[in-house]
Design brief:
Neuraminidase, four-stranded antiparallel sheet, mainly beta, 23 strands, 4% helix
Length: 290
């Protein structure tokens, strides 16, 4: 009996933790400072490579650089069997203030805030409860709703270009919504290509972070496939990064110098940030080996 219990304990300790939901964002401000979350704190890396804690004690999944140049993030905490959450902003002086005070419940109990905005200040809220996107005015009113095809699968994540063009991943597909429109257009399929290391990952976490570059390319983190897929304007899909060993991509962004920054998470929930140059040269900027 004790032997069986011991084996169960060992299996639990060594089993991959790929069912966890990692952070999906790494962002860069105008000075070139990089910010990312390890779900316990938010780190910052300056251009000279110095890493320090930007915001302590936050369970942050998404980050955003606002029009004010400051970094914003969510903070979702367990309170017993329930949740509470807030939205915070780190000011230029390094002070953290709440832009949405603490309130009870999970963000999906409200669906009234997002970090996806266009240049007109409209906010795009991905609703996983009814597979749609609410577009809200500056005042918070829903001005239109984009219905997504629920038969495609789980609605993962979305991004909005400054001109209001929205991209969203649903199932293994990438959809495009033109600025001001409510119809979707299929851009790419078969983005999820699972690897054995992440074979047990839940479908809802298969695709994670999504971002764009100035040329109109869309990048999707195939977390289940340990890769980053680049989707061109005409829908051509190219794999621009592959993870090695236990590592996969959970998010990314384009740095001020045009290189790719990849937020990597591992099957053991370690996190690191890598820079990928156009020729494929990769440099690890920060590495947390758990």
């Amino acid at each position: 009996m004790w032997a069986i219990a011991f084996l169960v304990l060992v299996a639990a300790l060594v089993a991959p933790a790929v069912s966890a939901h990692p952070s999906v964002s790494v962002v860069v401000d105008s000075s070139g400072t990089v910010y990312y979350s390890d779900l316990q704190r938010v780190w910052m890396i300056t251009r000279d490579g110095t890493r320090s804690v930007a915001v302590e004690n936050v369970h942050t999944h998404e980050l955003w650089i606002g029009p004010d140049g400051n970094v914003h993030g969510d903070d979702v905490q367990n309170v017993g069997d329930a949740y509470r959450h807030r939205v915070w902003k780190r000011t230029a002086s390094g002070t953290t203030v709440n832009t949405q005070p603490w309130r009870s419940g999970h963000p999906t109990d409200y669906y009234d805030f997002s970090f996806n905005y266009d240049d007109d200040g409209q906010m795009y809220v991905l609703r996983r409860d009814n597979t749609s996107i609410d577009v809200r005015s500056r005042g918070g009113d829903v001005v239109r709703t984009v219905q997504l095809d629920e038969t495609l699968g789980f609605p993962h994540w979305m991004t909005v270009a400054t001109d209001g063009t929205a991209f969203v991943t649903v199932g293994s597909t990438l959809l495009r919504i033109a600025a001001g429109q409510s119809e979707t257009r299929l851009v790419a399929t078969n983005l999820v290509q699972r690897t054995p290391a992440f074979a047990d990952l839940h479908d809802r976490h298969a695709l994670m972070g999504i971002w764009t570059d100035a040329a109109g390319n869309v990048f999707v983190a195939d977390y289940a496939g340990q890769a980053v897929r680049q989707v061109s304007v005409d829908g051509h899909v190219t794999t621009v990064w592959r993870g090695e060993g236990k590592w996969s991509a959970a998010g990314g962004t384009v740095d001020v110098d045009g290189s790719l920054l990849i937020l990597e998470w591992s099957a053991s929930n370690a996190v690191r940030v890598s820079r990928v140059l156009a020729d494929g040269t990769t440099t690890v900027l920060a590495n947390d080996q758990r």
